[in-house]
Amino acid sequence: MKITIINGPNLNLLGTRETDIYGSQNFESYLDSIRSNFPKVRIEYFQSNIEGEIINFIHESKDCNGIILNAAAYTHTSIGIADAIKSIDCKVIEVHISNTYSREEFRQKSFLSPVVSGIIIGFGLDSYRLALESLITGG
Ligand code: DQA
Questions:
Q1: Which CATH number is 128's domain given?
Q2: By residue range, what is the domain housing residue 22?
Q3: How many domains, the chain?
Q4: Whole-structure pTM value
Q5: Pick the catalytic residue: 30, 96, 101, 128?
Q6: How many CA atoms lie less than 13 Å away from 81 in the CB half-sphere?
């Protein structure tokens, strides 16, 4: 089973960026822990600060068993990423570390939510594990 995690802009700075909101763990160490907790799953990881690169990677991920996507700020702006999700058959789960609905109003609009299979928001980095469990169990 192959699952792809895609992180959008500024998520390369997890661990040091706004730690009161996003926590102090960097994504690479979190990724190591979920890879070792799910040894049978091939977890591919891609991060980019560039919208077009994320779109290209979604196109290239069409053969995987599921995509866990935190498009970060592009969630609230990107029709291009929404269209890319619609263009592939692979199941996509939208995740967010913070509860975007308890934050600024502009974070309460997602162009992606209408086109994904499911949404997991506000459980810190554990949002990714919950999404992974859901893809594994086929929920
Ligand atoms: C985020 C929420 C977005 O609003 C924000 O722009 C991010 C991270 C989250 O995971 O909580 O960069 O997607």
A1: 3.40.50.9100
A2: 2-137
A3: 1
A4: 0.97
A5: 96
A6: 30
What Rg, from alpha-carbon coordinates, does the chain have? 14
Is 59 among the residues known to form the active site? no
* Pocket (CB within 6 angstroms of ligand 1): 10, 70, 72-73, 75, 96-98, 100, 107
Residue the block writes with tokens 């792809």: 4
What does the pLDDT profile of the chain (139 residues) look like in tens digits? 999 999 999 999 999 999 999 999 999 999 999 999 999 999 999 999 999 999 999 999 978 889 999 999 999 999 999 999 999 999 999 999 999 999 999 999 999 999 999 999 999 999 999 999 999 998 5
* Whole-number Å distance between alpha carbons of 39 and 116: 26
Question: Residues 13, 127, 45, 61: is their CA dihedral positive or negative?
Answer: negative
Query: Rounded to the nearest 10 degrees, what angle do helices 27-37 and 126-137 cross at?
Result: 30
